[in-house]
């Protein structure tokens, strides 16, 4: 609130400002800019009072950018991220020595003058006039604080930073008026505290607490006299007086500060001399900024957390606003990441897929019923170097991932669930010959699909009839092609939507029978979360990565919550559990089965083996593992992965063992509940019409899940199914 005016006129502060504006403001501007006075005084004085009056009365102080700390579910630190490495502390948490040192060297008369040091101005103007050039400035500590506020408000915008630091009389006049306001409203101690928190100390350290940590690995309250003088000396020119890169120049400057402290009676001469004799002893803590510093491969999860904030309107109406909120930092973000699970995932992936392999691996584990992401890892480290990447191979494109990868036969349980909901039962049987034409026409959500193309199995001995149990266990393609032609594509699309299954690039699922063979590109997180629906008795829960967020005051902020809904009946989920238990017990996924606990899952490979998968679950965890070339160029034939040679890569022989190892470590020491299932006896119903062909099996020696109608033992002949996307080399990248 402004002070009461005397007789309706100007307040004392305004009168003083007017007086300064008329009499010495020009000199103050010139002194503060360190410009020669000769020939410029009249020009500076002209219009200075008018400009002063037009400046808004209130300085809008932006929140100081600080570090944001990202924690795992147990409270352990994952990483610190910041645009400004700063930790704001109270004056009581700063050494008295550093307070005295900064005042002595930057503004010795700080406690004697107001916002403007008239005596200092006159001295500077006189000295500059006599020298005819740059000799001395006279900005007070308060003025310097105001200038730093302008710089902080500019953020990382180079144009705004240039405006905030430009050496013009107009900016200096604005700075002077705000300095008067700040002195009146805050008082000396608060100004000193704010200055020591906002100013730059070099080496990416903003504020005295970050500087103490950077140079001495200690808190600002524990700084000694010689350490305090060293930090205070850096402020004038952080690059010139950098003790890391130029210790001799830094020591000279430190000793200048110490002598200045003695001259101003801040310390005794004896104290200053004793401190000056000490060598500079640094204990440098290198900047550890960003997700790249996260351990156990958690950098990609850390980056996912950032994307959650940037995409959620709870943190700002626009992405620009949300980005500004992230950069301001000062948040403590507790996440869902379980350190045991994360360590297990990363060990399993990197142990079987090396960072210099021609293909990569990625894995995600989520918690059924909560949507919590418990772990997220990949074979290529987070970074910018050789065999490193910043692309999160586990997530959708909008969350920092790529366009996704064809899931192959891991999509078949979605079709099975849709068929069961449409009234089919596990006894549904089709006689599946080795080779058949795609059924046509097939109903869609908007009409019909028509086409004419063959689909065949890799092994000619694989001929039906098969029921749903055996077809799922052996991953018979033609069974599911016939099944989808029987029920139509629309029920499958609707079931996929209810299970959160969407394409990684955000496009809609195709309305074509190719969906039966897993042609739409998905991310591992999408597939893991979809399978969690089966584990959670048919209830889908959207993925979440954040448990809580608090700001610098400890205030809890609103965070995104999981959204759960029933995707299928309990009976259907129990039936799918029984079908997928058969896969790991006596089907293509035997190599992925867990010891001593119920598990279920499905193997998958894409056309021409650009991708291989295993996705599975227990009642308390669901996970997906993908192996392939993110660029969709390397087919996995005659290839060495993790030191092991493969003539062909199967979902069972590479992703499967990774899944088993990752899940075993994640579940170690945790309960082993049973999966609820139903009996899958032959009902004698829905025996089918005897049409169709055989399937292909995703296990060594028995073929793999075929993404199209040709044999993967030979190169694609380049044909396409009419109305289909290019299944034979254009998908899954």
Task: Kindly describe this structure.
With 733 residues, the chain is of the alpha+beta class. The longest helix is centred in the N-terminal third of the chain and has 18 residues, at 169-186. Strands 2-1-3-13-14 form a 5-stranded mixed beta sheet, with helices on one face. Strands 5-4-18-17-16 form a 5-stranded antiparallel beta sheet.
Q: Which sheet architecture does the biggest sheet show?
A: 5 strands, mixed
Radius of gyration: 34 Å
Which percent bin holds the helix content? 25-40%
Low-confidence stretches: 1-52, 682-733
Please, what is the average pLDDT?
83
List the total number of helices.
24
Question: Which structural class should the secondary elements be placed in?
Answer: alpha+beta
Question: What is the count of β-strands?
Answer: 20
User: Could you tell me how far the N terminus lies from the C terminus, measured between alpha carbons in angstroms?
Assistant: 62 Å
Give the CA-based shape: elongated
């Amino acid at each position: 609130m402004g002070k009461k005016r005397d007789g309706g006129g100007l307040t004392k502060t305004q009168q003083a400002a007017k007086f300064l504006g008329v009499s010495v403001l020009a000199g103050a501007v010139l002194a503060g800019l360190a410009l020669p006075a000769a020939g410029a005084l009249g020009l500076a004085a002209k219009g200075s009072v008018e400009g002063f009056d037009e400046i808004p009365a209130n300085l809008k102080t932006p929140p100081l950018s600080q570090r944001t700390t990202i924690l795992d579910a147990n409270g352990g630190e994952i990483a610190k991220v910041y645009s400004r490495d700063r930790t704001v502390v109270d004056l009581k948490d700063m050494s008295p020595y550093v307070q005295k040192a900064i005042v002595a060297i930057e503004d010795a008369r700080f406690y004697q003058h107001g916002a403007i040091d008239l005596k200092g101005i006159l001295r500077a103007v006189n000295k500059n006039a006599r020298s005819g050039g740059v000799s001395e400035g006279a900005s007070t500590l308060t003025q310097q604080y105001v200038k730093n506020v302008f710089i902080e408000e500019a953020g990382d915008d180079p144009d705004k930073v240039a405006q905030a630091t430009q050496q013009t009389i107009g900016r200096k006049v604005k700075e002077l008026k705000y300095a008067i306001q700040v002195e009146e409203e805050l008082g000396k101690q608060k100004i000193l505290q704010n200055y020591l928190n906002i100013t730059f100390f070099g080496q990416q350290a903003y504020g005295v607490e970050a500087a103490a940590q950077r140079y001495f690995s200690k808190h600002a309250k524990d700084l000694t006299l010689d350490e305090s003088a060293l930090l205070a000396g850096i402020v004038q020119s952080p690059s010139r007086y950098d003790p890391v890169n130029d210790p001799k120049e830094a020591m000279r400057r430190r000793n200048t500060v110490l002598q200045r402290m003695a001259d101003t009676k801040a310390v005794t001469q004896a104290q200053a001399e004793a401190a000056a004799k000490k060598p500079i002893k640094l204990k440098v803590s290198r900047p550890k900024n960003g997700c790249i510093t996260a351990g156990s491969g958690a950098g990609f999860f850390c980056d996912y957390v950032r994307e959650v904030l940037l995409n959620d309107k709870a943190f700002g109406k626009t992405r620009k606003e949300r980005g500004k909120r992230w950069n301001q930092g000062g948040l403590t973000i507790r996440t869902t990441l379980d350190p045991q699970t994360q360590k297990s995932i990363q060990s399993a992936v990197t142990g079987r897929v090396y960072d210099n392999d021609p293909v990569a691996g990625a894995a995600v584990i989520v918690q059924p019923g909560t949507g919590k992401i418990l772990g997220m890892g990949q074979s290529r480290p987070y970074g910018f170097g050789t065999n490193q990447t910043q692309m999160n191979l586990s997530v959708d494109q909008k969350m920092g991932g790529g366009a996704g990868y064809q899931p192959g036969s891991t999509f078949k349980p979605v079709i099975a669930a849709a068929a069961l909901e449409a009234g089919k039962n596990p006894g549904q049987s089709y006689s599946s010959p080795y080779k058949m034409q795609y059924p046509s026409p097939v109903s869609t959500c908007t009409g019909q699909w028509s086409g004419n193309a063959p689909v065949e199995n890799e092994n000619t001995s694989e001929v039906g009839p098969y029921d749903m149990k055996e077809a799922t266990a052996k991953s018979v393609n033609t069974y599911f092609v016939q099944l989808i032609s029987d029920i139509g594509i629309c029920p499958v699309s609707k079931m996929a939507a209810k299970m959160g299954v969407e394409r990684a690039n955000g496009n809609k699922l195709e309305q074509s029978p190719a969906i039966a063979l897993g042609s739409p590109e998905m991310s591992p997180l999408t597939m893991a979360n979809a399978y969690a629906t089966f584990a959670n008795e048919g209830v889908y829960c959207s993925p979440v990565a954040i448990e809580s967020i608090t700001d610098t005051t400890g205030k809890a902020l609103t965070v995104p919550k999981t959204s759960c809904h029933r995707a299928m009946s309990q009976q259907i989920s129990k039936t799918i559990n029984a079908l997928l238990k058969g896969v790991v017990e006596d089907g293509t996924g035997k190599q992925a089965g867990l010891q001593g606990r119920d598990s279920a899952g499905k193997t998958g490979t894409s056309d021409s083996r650009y991708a291989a998968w295993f996705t599975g679950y227990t009642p308390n965890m669901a996970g997906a593992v993908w192996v392939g070339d993110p660029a969709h160029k390397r087919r996995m034939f005659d290839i060495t992965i993790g030191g092991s040679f493969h003539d062909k890569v199967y979902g069972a022989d590479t992703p499967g063992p990774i899944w088993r190892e990752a899940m075993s470590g994640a579940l170690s020491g945790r309960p082993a509940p049973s999966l609820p299932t139903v009996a899958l006896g032959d009902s004698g119903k829905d025996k089918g019409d005897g049409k169709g062909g055989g399937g292909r099996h995703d296990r060594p020696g028995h073929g793999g899940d075929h993404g199209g109608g040709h044999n993967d033992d030979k190169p694609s002949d380049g044909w396409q199914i009419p109305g289909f996307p290019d299944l034979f080399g254009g998908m899954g990248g």
